Amino acid sequence: MAGTTSLVVPIVLWGPTPPTHCVSCVMVTADQRTIVTGCHDGQIVMWDLDENLQLSPRNILFGHSASITCLTKATNSWDNSTIISAAENGEVCIWDVNDGRCIEHTKQQHVHTEMKPYQATQGINRESRILCRGYYPDIRVIDAISLVPLFSLTSKFSPDWICAMSIMRPLKRQDDTVIALSTSGMLKIWALSGKENKASEPIYEEQCKPLRCLTAHSLSPCAFNLRTMLIVCGKYWQVYDTIDFALLCSEFCDRGLQWSGGDFLAADRVIIWSNDGKAYLYQLPSNCVADSEDFRFSVGKGPEAVSQPFLYCILEPPEPKPLSCPPAMTFFYGRRGALFKLFVRGDSNGQLNTWLVPEISDKELGFLKQEEFDTLPIMPPSASRSLADCWNSCQPRPAGIIDQLNTGKSKKQQEKPLAVTASIYLAEYGRLVCGREDGSVVIVPATQTAIVQLLEGLHTARKGWPPHRILRGHQGKVTCLIYPYQESIRYDPKFLVSGGTDFSVCLWDIFAGSLLHTYSVHGGEITRMVLPPDNCNSRVLMCVCTVASDHSVALLSLRDRKCVMLAGRHLFPVKQIKWRPAEDFLIVGCQDGSVYVWQMETGHLDRIVHGNTAEDILDACDQVSATSETMLTPTQSIAVAFRRRSLAAIRKSAQRSIIAATQGNHEHNLDTVEQTTNNPTHALTIQSMRANPKDSDFHVLFFDTEALIVQLLTDKNLIPGIVGLENQNVKSQHSSSEQRSPKLAEKVVGFISKKMENLRDSDDEDDGQLHPPKGASGKQSGGRSPDPEYQPYRGAKHLTLLESHLTLDIAQLYMSCLHAWGLDTYLDDICLKKLGLLKPHAPVSFGLLSRGAHMSLMLPGWHQFQPEVATTPKELTAKEALELKKQGLASPVEPPINKKHYLGHWELSRAVTTQHLLSVISVANTLMSRNNATFVQLSQYRKPRRRASSRSDTDEQTDGAVTRSANDAENQIELTPEQAQIKQGWSLLAALHCVLLPDLLGSTFFKPPQLEMLAKRWQDRCLEVREAAQALLLAELRRIGSDGRSNVIDTWAPYLPNYVDPGESLTSVQSTPSSSRPPQSPDHHPDNTSNDSETDLEDEILCGEVPIKRISSSFESRRKQATAIVMLGVIGAEFGAEIQPHQKANLQSRRPIQEGFGLNDHSLARHTAKALSFLLLQPPSPRLPAHTPIRRAAIDLIGRGFTVWEPYMDVSAVLLGLLELCSNTSLFSVSMTSGLPITPAADSCRSSHHALSLIATARPAAFITTMAKEVARYVAQVNMAQTPVAQLQCSPLVRAKAEILRIVELLIDKMQNDVAEHMIEVMDIIVHCLDSAQLKVKGLKEVFPAVCRFNTVSYCRHSRRIAVGAKVGSIALYDSKTSKSHQISGHSTAVTCLAFSPDGKYLASYSFGDAKLCIWQTGSSLLGGMLSSSTKCIKCYNTKSITSGTMSPNLLKLVRLHWSQSKTVVLNNTDGKEYRFHV
């Protein structure tokens, strides 16, 4: 279950210049709809190829940290949507083509330069494998799903690197043949039977033959006849016969050129391409064509007998530009209607050209041969496009993070914006610091500048908005920035350090905006800055370590403003910096492998080491301290720096505020809630990235949905617009002294509040000061704010000015980007006017984070080439559509969506849709739970103030906040309709995305959410995300109908673990056919071994945390099984046949019964029930810890579908298991009081609490009788005195008494008739759970008042006895002193009411059925509870029988007894009369 990973949505701001994309390899997918290019910087770009052969770049994939060496399909099937990439440093990844998800990744020792898919067949089982060649001898085979190395194809004779290889399946043979050429020209042939596996012996070649082909580039058998083979070398290409490898034909290239690859176009045509980026089409001579009479005519004859191939066409791009490296080319033909023969070329400028290779008949070739041409026919590309073309065609142009501030003052500068060359996000204050190419450093509020770039609003037209500050001190471009306080709190919070190309390092005070010091110690531009670890000596602790391009390393003291040490004797560029604090050594690793050891105290060079010793020293540093900083090469900076820093920041943000806040006791919990409140910047992280060191930065905004929800729920200091009105007057319990740095906030407010009025009243050029938003303030400005208007929100005293709006700004930006604009104009209007959302300028470029910090980012313009909406969406409002949906009516058909107004991102992929829907629904529900949760006021301070505003303007535009704080009580009444409209707006927004989106968009345009991802979040740690996932999964299961659910069941049933007798198990559990692989998840594969074994049950269940290392197939298998349990559990609980209680029997027909979960066909229900109860009852183990998401999911599903599972479960064991989890009541109280996500233990307690309530209300009789039996068993154990007391005290019946009483009280409230029918069993349970000491002091009416509302229960305070009337006519008497009971029979029909006399000597009982009133004499019970001898019937009266038909239970409640005097009892009957009886 992925419930432990946070839900992070990236949004990218690309900036005005496209990333560099120097293509190193290219491939075409099997369906010919996507072209994939890998580049030398490690990125991969997916290009869409439409029916008209038009190209559009869709997304770019980040994750590799070295040049991409090869790309291949993961399998040979036509419908496969996964590709595999390999990089120069041994990284191998599997990607999903549809959305750019990284499915699997690993790092191998060897570098692969070519990979080919191969399918191993064993009977009906098929396994996908990949053959790899590269910088190592022979061929290696890896698994295409887990990337695990399987075996090698090795050589007995002359082992060597393989330079070309291919796979053939000869027609008359069952096995596959691998043909390969080594660099020395040896041809080797291996045979593969499909039975090879990891344990196989080395597989040696069957044949080895020398050919005169040195360093071949490609080897291609003719797919049309398998008889000929094309080998392309640098200087020539040759065609051979595959039977005896006789040379049939050869062609040399022109001087200055080199052939780089080739393939067969047909049996008699080849395409050969050269390193200058051109392709040449040849017709082969007749002696090379297997079907020709002249085949092999020239074999054995001299060179003069060999006829030459005929060159008839050249594929050449127009206006060839100078290239920095040879272009990457490939030829591919596949099925797309007719056979498309595509030649694709990608070059170092990022240009992609495609040619549809022409079909020229033999007749036309005959004409070409007859005529003589001065130049050969040249064919231009059918389509050509680059990333730069994509950028130029976008309107509006792709926005950068501070584009509006990047124009210079002169006209020339305004034409070309300044590039951002370095940036850092200060998470504490929500600021972005950007260094630019002119040497200036800009500090800007991050959310506000992002809103300007992405969203439309009145404020976006402002000159110089948002308020910002510019620091000037560098003469050349800024190359790196560091904010030391963010890394370690030992540094002063005001310090910001920057390095530039002017060889200088500047130290800034970011609060005063001043330059404190300039260090000029290096002789080259600054390339990197690192902080020393915390255990260095005090002199070094206040330093920053800087690295420059002159290979020097310096330690610069920020406190003393001087250079502590300069290490400048390195001969090669510095690659890594490591520390040995104990010995006071600084270790510098250089690119040539040498290591320099410097003494930090004296600055002396201790020694220089090379080779193995150098490696050992670096390894020892890693072992001594985890703190090490690698000096990444520019190529690696994206993937590795991103992996190390930004994701750590994202994860820390969620973990620090959530997990830390929920560990420990309640007091600790309250403290950490306040800490979270004080730090509201975790919902957003901004990471600057670049594809190439020469590029300018682009920025990715990572929105953490979970952290945002936590902040919205817990931040009491937000403006009253978001906090519930009931909380407005709540003052914070903690003073501002508990913040990390109270003086810091004072300084921030001081410098940003100086000239706010100037900004609001004029549109002059910005003065460089950072200005506060209106509507935040406080105490920490020290009263320096000149206008009381800027101190309106007195509740938000200990927040800095910008922080008070930060969470709201993030939520506004996030929801505005995610909302499905253009589908419902009525809802769009509400969003703009009531909720305060802003519409995006253009479709937003989203991203998708996947495993191992791999990331896919949408390129700008992705929406321009989306297919037109071929659907008939409904133009109803969301409100009307919801009503129709409830009534089961179809909506009327209206004209299609207007593409101009539609800003969709629901057609991208199922994974993206899932993430976005989960995020938008969970945040909308969170906002709906707050009062007056609108962003309208947020935009007010951004609007330019009118110089002469009339009094008729709304108060909110000028000083609404003051009014609100002054007139709290009035506004509470005034805002009620407004609040209702806002809540309804958020409700409609959530409903649109949860229920109506598929109908509004149509199936062709909407990629539905991925069921597997939703099932994994069924018990997400964040309750709002959990509720959204559950609602979405249920809505999607209803939408796909019974057939769709059957497909889901067929997909997942094979993975359901088998906990019943093997002889009775599902047939699909025994064997897993290859066709049953889930369509949603090409990354998974079925595990055939672990399902049948009962000894490895723990192996089959998923642990809570996903391991950091690459998962093994056994973990993969357990994860599949966990998902299968949840998926089938949800389907069974919602669509299974219920064992209906009689009150609901009439509802049974309304519920569709899913096949496999019926009363007759119950195989799936039985297996699922067994799996769920196993998860609940299995003792904790390392593989299945106590409080994992899968256990919580099992608890939840047992409760939801108990009426389906009941026949197949041990009800006693299940109830006791749930009570055991509920036994710690303090956990539950903590989980309910804090708004934070809760600890796993408290979450399990909460889920069990809820499940017990559902079980008890769904099957009250089963719950009551089962619990009564368990109580009786427990009492018998106590009386026998054989069971140890300690063991009895640990029983859930003892520890969970409060929970049992809660459920009994719930049943009394909701299911009175069921309780009345089992009154004696209920009283058995109550007497067991009540505290006898309290009962003695207070009496039953005070201790448990709920049960006293029944007339069949009476309590005598004098004798401390309880009398209960049963349905069978007997009376049970309980002695609360001894907890013993005894039954006496007195009536033939159900007892209607009972009453003890005031002195406790008599008990009156009345039965309406036999119209008889009995008076019993109760003894004093002196003999220690011998009730039988002391209770006897002394009088019996026959009352008047009322025969007006059958009496309803409600009418019988009116019948009651009470004693008017010590010996007179009064009966109130249903006819409204009173009857008196005397003893």
What's the main sheet like?
Answer: 6 strands, antiparallel
Detail the poorly predicted runs.
626-681, 717-804, 867-875, 888-900, 943-975, 1061-1112, 1141-1149, 1421-1429
**Average residue pLDDT:** 75
Approximate helicity band: 25-40%
Which shape, going by the Cα principal axes? Answer: globular
What oligomeric arrangement do these chains adopt? single chain
Please sum up the structure shown:
The chain is α+β, with helices and mostly antiparallel strands and 1479 residues long. Helix content is 30%, strand content 25%. α27 runs parallel beside α31 (1240-1258).
Describe the structure.
The chain has about 1500 residues and is of the alpha+beta class. It is about 30% helix and about 25% strand. It is built from 41 helices and 63 strands. The strands form 15 sheets. The protein has a six-stranded antiparallel sheet with strand order 2-3-4-5-52-51, with no helix packed on it. A five-stranded mixed sheet has the order 10-11-12-13-17, with no helix packed on it. A five-stranded mixed sheet has the order 23-24-25-26-30. Strand 10 (about 110-120) and strand 11 form a beta hairpin. Helix 31 packs parallel to helix 35. About 50% of the residues are buried. Mean pLDDT is about 75; it is low at about 625-680, about 715-805, about 865-875, about 890-900, about 945-975, about 1060-1110, about 1140-1150 and about 1420-1430.
